[in-house]
Amino acid sequence: MNDSLCKTEKLCKSFGSTKALSDVDVTIRKGEIHGLVGENGSGKSTLSSIFAGIQKADSGTMTLCGEPYRPASTLGAMDSGVSMVVQEQGTISGITVAANIFFGKESQFVKNGVLNVKKLEREAQKTLESIGVTHIRPDILIDKLSF
Ligand SMILES: Nc1ncnc2c1ncn2[C@@H]1O[C@H](COP(=O)(O)OP(=O)(O)OP(=O)(O)O)[C@@H](O)[C@H]1O
Ligand SMILES: [Mg+2]
Fold first, then answer.
1. In sequence order, which ranges of 2-116 are alpha helices (DSSP H)?
2. Any atom of ligand 1 within 6 Å of the Cβ of 17
3. CB 3.0-4.6 Å disulfide test: which of 18, 24, 78, 110 passes with 11?
């Protein structure tokens, strides 16, 4: 039975003369939780970011649920249900909290070519409330918030 969720085969990535990944084969099955452990510079972030579409491998292949998986970008990966939660600040400055929450998904709030900002903010409010956040207004600029 092929129950692999995420799989990489012979993934390679170099930065100049630095070989960050060398023929990396990883299989993660449905329901599993893995810790990727290694010394600084061993390639953990490089591997994760390639799977999340942030950067591209030089060679090798990936599959998601048994299907070929080649994310063109972070948004492409998100469309496939893959995203990376980073320890660094992952927000986009200059736009609102609501716009950050639905970044790349705005089309669901567009009608006749016009973005329904109120609806976007209402949905963002619901999303925030669903995780118990009631003290952050969705319509404020993200830059007004502390880290
Ligand atoms: N954008 C980049 N440009 C040049 N070299 C890079 C780049 N990203 C990573 N590297 C190099 O690739 C190797 C793997 O780095 P990576 O960040 O994936 O390691 P890591 O396991 O996540 O390390 P850490 O534990 O410090 O987070 C390192 O030698 C690093 O210096
Ligand atoms: Mg890292």
1. 44-51, 74-79, 97-101
2. no
3. 24
In this predicted model, what pLDDT tens digit does every residue of 86-107 receive, in sequence order? 877 789 999 999 999 999 889 9
pTM to 2 decimal places: 0.77
Contact 71, 25 (CB under 8 A): no
11 within ligand 1 shell (Cβ under 6 A): no
Distance 114 CA to ligand 2 centre (A): 40
- Residue 80 in contact with ligand 1 by CB distance below 6 A: no
Check pocket membership of 81 for ligand 1, CB cut-off 6 A.
no
Q: Are 8 and 22 in contact (CB under 8 A)?
A: no
Sketch out the chain's domains with CATH numbers. 4-79 (3.40.50.300), 97-144 (no CATH)
